[in-house]
Amino acid sequence: MLSKSEKETIELGEKIGKKLEKGMCLVLKGDLAGGKTTFTKGIGKALNIKEVINSPTFTILKIYEGNLKLFHIDAYRLEGSDYDLGLDEYLDEGVMVVEWPEYYIDYLPSEYLEITFNYIDDDTREINFIAHGDKYKELC
């Protein structure tokens, strides 16, 4: 699908966020400025999170409180790391959104929703969904 604005990307995140349940994991792929954190803002809106959601690039993990806890992970700085941070344990407490999952792929749950953001121009993104597991098919 195409998102033609930041507002549309947030609205899509909100639509998906309303369907999330405790224990779900979303992995967000795409280049810098692809829309991953913008999409996560929409998820936060759906979960009634009042804090400003921004990229956890330097902290690796940010935890937000809402209807469900949102664990927002940026695995970019984990490139080349072979250390399991135990992030899967957070799934018992809420939902997990992982940016740059390719740097933490060996430690992700076996089932998740993969969302890829392709930068088209300053406003437009192509967003693709792949369900890894039956419970994620309806989110697509």
How would you sum up this structure, described in words?
The chain is of the alpha/beta class and 140 residues long. The protein has a single domain (2-81, 96-139), classed as P-loop containing nucleotide triphosphate hydrolases (Rossmann fold), CATH 3.40.50.300. Helix content is 16%, strand content 29%. It contains 2 helices and 7 strands. It has helices spanning 6-17, 36-46; strands at 2-3, 25-30, 61-64, 69-74, 94-99, 112-119, 125-132. Strands 1-7-6-2-5-4-3 form a 7-stranded mixed beta sheet. The protein is globular, with a radius of gyration of 14 Å. It starts with a strand and ends in an 8-residue tail after the last strand.
Helix and strand succession? EHEHEEEEE
What's the architecture, going by CATH? Answer: 3-Layer(aba) Sandwich
Number of spatially distinct domains: 1
Q: What oligomeric state is this?
A: single chain
Name the CATH superfamily classification: P-loop containing nucleotide triphosphate hydrolases
Give a quick rundown of the structure.
The chain is an alpha/beta fold and 140 residues long. The chain contains two helices and seven strands; from the N terminus they run E-H-E-H-E-E-E-E-E.
